[in-house]
Specification:
alpha+beta; Heat Shock Protein 90; six-stranded mixed sheet; 8 helices; 15 strands; 47% helix
């Protein structure tokens, strides 16, 4: 059912109103149709009651006089006179109308007509016994003001047969045509429904656009949210929507202020920590034991790199560098050559020139982190580039032991390291993967780790080309 619903707010609102209105109008049409049918039957019944009442009064005044028919079978009197017989003209299988029978009996009683029984049935076609006792047919036409006459032959919607038993046991039966007084009833209802839809839906469309336009602007602003770098969204729409946009603008301002304070704090931390580290390194140079001096210098360098990673990770979301079209193959080749010059086994398979809109400095750092992990824990790194539609994949494969599948997700957590890397001489700060993924995600992509079937680990950088 959900797949048939519109995706937009205005579309779902209009669909709901249209569906509700359709149900309500359907119920209304059914009720009006049933009311019209009952009204037609009631009119036909009233005519039949009047004709039988007149016949009873004639019999009471002049007595019963049996009708005579000539040899050719045509009656000498009008067809609209009731049929007089020893039994009711209501036959088995005809649709009886108990409600009409009750109302007719009350009508006869109110007019002072003494009857033993009244039976009423509805038929689509007249039985042969009643063709000469029918009213409501007129002459097949009716007067239309001063214009003239119009044909009525197609307006008969069946008949009711009313049989009334008088005091001497005889039955007076009359058939009354059920007239369709409004042949355009269905078309009128359809026109009425269309008018109601237009009256209701046009204002709703305007209201929906009035509400959805500022919500779309808010959605776009939230999707492109960059703390401290966004202009306030114009407050428009109904009061609730205005309050929501105002709250979003206020949140954007507060987040920007908090990040500004954080940057100031991080700058102070970086300065306060790097200064004593530099002084400590100068003092370490005076240590006479070469082995001990090298260990102390390595420890200071490691602390400096860790501090640099932490500050870079914290400032990542506030990077002011502009993205530009960059040759990915050339960038990878530069990083690979750096490690090759240091004596590491790093190979790169070119696959043509591929450009992407990136901040080259950040992507270069992410590549260094991933290639550095590969050569540190997997002895060598094989880099390849693959393109699939609007996605760019940079794969870094190593020959190491891989990572247990249940710990791969945890490896992206800050300061998390695999068991093999817990030694400070072989392991880093535990921020390399975290920083690499943060950089790539800041570009709208992601970093994925996967154990290879042939052994080793594959780290993949996924970037969007558009």
């Amino acid at each position: 059912m959900k797949r048939f619903l519109p995706n937009s707010l205005i579309g779902q609102l209009l669909a709901l109103v249209a569906f509700t209105l359709l149900i309500a109008q359907t119920i209304n049409v059914v009720l009006l149709y049933r009311g019209a049918q009952n009204q037609k039957i009631a009119e036909a019944a009233v005519s039949a009651v009047g004709r039988i009442t007149g016949e009873v009064e004639r019999i009471n005044d002049r007595g019963f006089r049996e009708r005579r028919f000539p040899p050719d079978g045509n009656p000498r009197m009008r067809k609209s006179r009731p049929n007089i017989s020893a039994q009711s003209m209501i036959e088995t299988g005809q649709v009886r109308l108990p409600t009409v029978e009750g109302r007719a009996a009350v009508a006869f009683e109110n007019m002072g007509v003494d009857l033993r029984a009244v039976e009423v049935a509805r038929v689509d076609f007249l039985p042969t016994t009643m063709v000469n006792s029918v009213i409501g047919l007129g002459r097949g036409r009716e007067r239309v003001h001063a214009v003239g006459y119009r044909d009525l032959s197609d307006k008969v919607d069946g008949y009711i047969i009313m049989s009334a038993q008088i005091s001497d046991g005889q039955w007076l039966s009359i058939a009354s045509a059920i007239r369709d007084r409004n042949p355009l009833f269905v078309r009128t209802l359809i026109f009425q429904t269309l008018v109601i839809y237009l009256i209701l839906l046009i204002p709703l469309i305007w209201l929906g656009r009035y509400i959805s336009r500022p919500l779309k602007a808010l959605t776009k602003g939230a999707r492109n949210f960059s703390p401290g770098n966004n202009d306030p969204i114009e407050e428009s729409g109904p009061p609730d929507t205005r309050q929501l946009i105002a709250a979003f603008n206020d949140m954007n301002s507060r987040v920007g202020a908090m990040l500004d304070q954080k940057d100031v704090m991080l700058g102070a931390i970086g300065h306060d920590l790097r200064t004593p580290l530099a002084a400590l390194r100068v003092r370490v140079e005076s240590v006479e034991d070469d082995i001990e001096r090298e260990r102390m210098i390595a420890g200071i360098d490691d602390m400096d790199r860790t501090l640099d990673d932490i500050l870079s990770l914290a400032r990542l979301g506030r990077s002011q560098g502009m993205a530009e079209q960059t040759d990915i193959s050339a960038l990878i080749e530069t990083v690979a050559d750096e490690y090759t010059d240091m004596g590491e086994e790093v190979s790169f398979t070119r696959s043509g020139r591929i450009t992407a809109n990136i901040r080259a400095t950040l992507i270069r750092r992410a590549l260094r982190n991933l290639i550095g992990n590969a050569v540190k824990y997997g002895k060598q790194a094989a880099v390849s580039v693959d393109k699939d539609g609007d996605k760019l994949f940079i794969h870094i494969d190593d020959q190491g032991p891989g990572i247990p599948a249940d710990t791969i997700a945890a490896m992206f957590e800050p300061f998390a390291r695999a068991e093999i890397s817990r030694n400070r001489e072989t392991g880093g700060s535990g921020l390399g993967l975290t920083l690499a993924r943060a950089i790539v995600r800041d570009h709208g992509g992601d970093v994925v780790l996967k154990n290879r079937a042939e052994g080793g680990l594959r780290a993949s950088i996924i970037l969007n080309l558009v």
